[in-house]
Amino acid sequence: MCFKGLKWYLALKHLLLLHFFLETSIQARSEHPVLMVSGSNVSLEISNLPDNHQSLTWFYTSNQKIVEWESNTRKPHYYKNKFKDRVMLDLQNGTLYIYKVQKEDSSTYLLKVLKEDGTEEQRWITLKVFDPVPKPDIKIKTQEVNNSCILSCESLDQSVNYTWITDSRTFPEELQKSILEFAIEPQNHYSSYMCQVSNPVSHNSHTVNVTSDCKLVQSSGVAWISVWLVVMVPTILGLLLTQDKLS
Known about the structure:
Largest sheet: 7 strands, mixed
Oligomer: single chain
Structural class: alpha+beta
Radius of gyration: 33 Å
Number of helices: 2
Distance between the termini: 135 Å
CATH topology of the largest domain: Immunoglobulin-like
Number of strands: 17
Strand content: 35-45%
Low-confidence stretches: 12-28, 219-235
Helix content: 10-25%
CATH superfamily of the largest domain: Immunoglobulins
């Protein structure tokens, strides 16, 4: 009988502890990821912030604080780290403003909110910062074995997506990678090929002209125009001066 009573006591104690844990447990909500280009300003906004909160604390990582505010103080306390002088906390809605973000600022940020009833609520929001995509370089070579032309698109940023376009026509998805190979067929040949590289926040491109025998077209037109101007302008001026003297 005593053994049964002890079992009931332990079960009741367990239920009470579980109820207490549920009442005071941390509620976790995650916000949508924020994607930004480096050098820009970002606002980490938290929706449905609890009313009459007693304190707000933003974390860069789970143990690195950025800023902390308590209701009995007038101003937030900004911690001395890499965010010093680059962040501002909005006490009304808990938004964290970060200025001139860099790739190193990418992280899952945590906001801890101490509510009026003494319970704590946590919110997470992921920030991903990307550098602007640099202009890619295109190299070309001929594959004599199967009479094909190979274009390779090289980017300093390795985590980019590739898109090949020729004469306003986009290649199929299975060909959208750093290397483009196509058969040399003069009747189906497209002279202009563009490689566009992109990440979630920026893109860049490079266009080349290719001859039917898989060679890059040299941009000699500009040089030819320059030579033409050097030769013809003095000649034209001389003719105009001669005509003016004769008249």
